[in-house]
Automatic annotation (TrEMBL):
Similarity comment: family membership: Belongs to the ROK (NagC/XylR) family.
Membrane-spanning residues: none
Species whose genome carries this gene: Pseudonocardia oroxyli
Name recorded for this polypeptide: Sugar kinase of the NBD/HSP70 family, may contain an N-terminal HTH domain
InterPro entries: ATPase_NBD, ROK, ROK_cs, Tscrpt_reg_HTH_AsnC-type_CS, WH-like_DNA-bd_sf, WH_DNA-bd_sf
Annotated GO MF terms: kinase activity
Stored Gene3D superfamilies: 3.30.420.40, Winged helix-like DNA-binding domain superfamily/Winged helix DNA-binding domain
Swiss-Prot/TrEMBL keywords: Kinase, Transferase
Length: 401
C-alpha cells in the first residue's frame, strides 16, 4: 500500500480517505505533512480526508513532539477504540465468543455449551444473544459494532458464507449464515473454517514465520497451512482437512465420512472419549479427558500419547510436502499437551525427512484459548477496515448527512 501510493503517477486518481487511513493504520505516516508527501495530496485535500476519519472515530489526534524550527506537530494514530468487532468460533460442542477492539484485542469473552447438531438457526440465535450480553459487559455500544467474524468446523464456502456438507454438521450444508446474524446485527459478516482462523491468529503471533502448519485437536481434528506468508485455502476451501486422512494398519473402524480408519475416528477428542468410556472412565467431554491426564491416569496418558503418534503419522507427510518452520498445536486437547505432543514428535521426527525436521519447532499455539476468536476478529477487520470498505462507510455517512 505505502509503496503503491509513493510511486503514484501524477495522472493517477488522488488517494482516497480509505487509502490515507491504511497508511495511518500501518504506522507509515503520523502527520498531515507525511501524508502529503506519501500521497501527493494538497494540504487542503489531506485535511479533508483526515477530518472525515477523525469524525468517523477511526483516527485520533494528539499533539506530538516539536518539529525542528517550528511548533509541535499534531500526530495521527489509528484509534483502536473507534468501534468493536464481534467474534464467534463455533465448535461441535462448544462455541467461543468475544467482543474485540479494532486491533483484535479481546475486551470480553465467554463460551457457550451448545451442540452444533442443534442446527444453524438455534446456534446462531444463541450466539447473537450472548454477543449482545458481552457487548454490555464490555461497556460497548451496539451502534459501534463494525462487523462479525464467524468460524465453523469443516470445509467452508467463504464467499457464500456456508458449510459445504460437513458430516459433523448435519443440517448446516449450504445454509448461508450471515443472514441469520443480520437479523440481530446489521453489519458485515465473514465466515471461514475454524482452523483457518486459528492460523490467521497464529500468523499474526509469529511475525517473520512465513511457513506455518496449525493443528487443532478437539472433538475433531483439522489443520491449516500458511505457506510463503499466505493462508492456503485450496481450490474449494478444503486445504488442511487432514482429519479424514486414512492411516495404515488401522482396526477397520468406520468413520462418519464413509471411509474407514480416518485419523479423526481414531485419534480425536471424540475417539479418546469413546475409548476411555469403554475402559470404564466417566468422561463426556474433551475437558474430562484432559482432567484425567492431568490427574495422572496412566491409561488416559497412554491413549493420548498413542493418539499423538497416529496424528504424527499424517503430519509427517505434510512436513515432507510443505516444510513448515513451525507446527503449532491448539484445540481443547492441548490441555494434555505433554503426552499428545510427545507422540506427535515421535512420529514426525521418525517418518519425515531430516532436512524438513532439522529446525522444525513443534509448540503450543501462542494464543491457546483465544486463537479462534482472535482469528475471527482479524478475519473481519481485514474486510471492514480495508481502504475500499472505509470509503464505503464514509460515503454512506455523507448520504445520511
Amino acid at each position: 500500500m505505502t509503496g503503491a501510493l509513493r510511486g503514484r503517477r501524477p495522472t493517477a486518481a488522488p488517494a482516497t480517505a480509505g487509502e490515507v487511513f491504511a497508511l495511518i493504520r500501518q504506522g507509515a505516516v503520523a502527520t498531515r505533512t507525511e501524508i502529503g508527501r506519501a500521497t501527493g495530496l494538497s494540504r487542503t485535500a489531506v485535511a479533508a480526508r483526515v477530518d472525515r476519519l477523525l469524525a468517523e472515530g477511526l483516527v485520533s489526534e494528539v499533539q506530538g513532539g516539536a518539529v525542528t524550527g517550528g511548533r509541535p506537530a499534531a500526530r495521527l494514530a489509528f484509534h483502536a477504540g473507534g468501534g468493536t468487532v464481534l467474534a464467534a468460533s463455533v465448535g461441535v460442542s462448544r462455541t467461543s465468543l468475544a467482543v474485540c477492539d479494532l486491533t483484535g484485542a479481546v475486551l470480553a469473552q465467554d463460551s457457550l455449551r451448545i451442540r452444533a447438531r442443534s442446527g444453524p438457526e438455534p446456534v446462531m440465535r444463541a450466539v447473537a444473544d450472548r454477543l449482545g450480553g458481552l457487548l454490555a459487559e464490555a461497556g460497548a455500544d451496539r451502534a459501534g459494532v463494525r462487523g462479525i467474524g464467524l468460524s465453523i468446523p469443516g470445509t467452508v464456502d467463504s464467499t457464500a458464507g456456508c458449510s459445504i456438507g460437513v458430516p459433523v454438521l448435519p443440517g448446516w450444508a449450504e445454509v448461508k449464515l450471515p443472514p441469520l446474524l443480520h437479523e440481530h446485527f446489521a453489519v458485515p459478516v465473514r465466515v471461514d473454517n475454524d482452523v483457518n482462523v486459528m492460523a490467521i491468529a497464529e500468523q499474526h503471533a509469529h511475525p517473520g514465520i512465513d511457513d506455518l502448519l496449525v493443528l487443532k485437536v478437539s472433538t475433531g481434528i483439522g489443520a491449516a497451512v500458511v505457506s510463503g506468508g499466505v493462508l492456503q485455502r485450496g481450490a474449494r476451501g478444503s486445504a488442511g482437512e487432514i482429519g479424514h486422512t486414512q492411516v495404515a494398519n488401522g482396526p477397520g473402524m468406520p468413520c462418519h465420512c464413509g471411509n474407514v480408519d480416518c485419523i479423526e475416528i481414531l485419534a480425536s477428542g471424540s475417539a479418546l472419549i469413546r475409548d476411555l468410556v469403554v475402559r470404564g472412565r466417566a468422561v463426556d467431554t474433551v475437558s474430562d479427558v484432559v482432567d484425567l491426564v492431568r490427574a495422572g491416569d496412566a491409561e488416559a496418558v497412554t491413549l493420548v500419547r498413542e493418539a499423538g503418534r497416529r496424528i504424527g503419522e499424517v503430519l509427517a507427510a505434510a512436513v515432507n510436502l510443505l516444510n513448515p518452520a513451525v507446527i503449532t498445536v491448539g484445540g481443547d486437547l492441548v490441555g494434555a499437551y505433554e503426552p499428545l505432543v510427545a507422540g506427535i514428535r515421535e512420529s514426525v521426527f521418525k517418518r519425515a525427512v531430516a532436512t524438513a525436521t532439522q529446525s522444525l519447532r513443534v509448540e503450543p499455539g501462542a494464543l491457546v484459548g483465544r486463537s479462534g476468536v482472535t482469528g475471527c476478529a482479524i478475519l473481519v477487520l481485514d474486510r471492514v477496515l480495508s481502504p475500499g470498505a472505509v470509503d464505503e462507510i464514509l460515503a454512506a455517512r455523507d448520504v445520511v448527512l
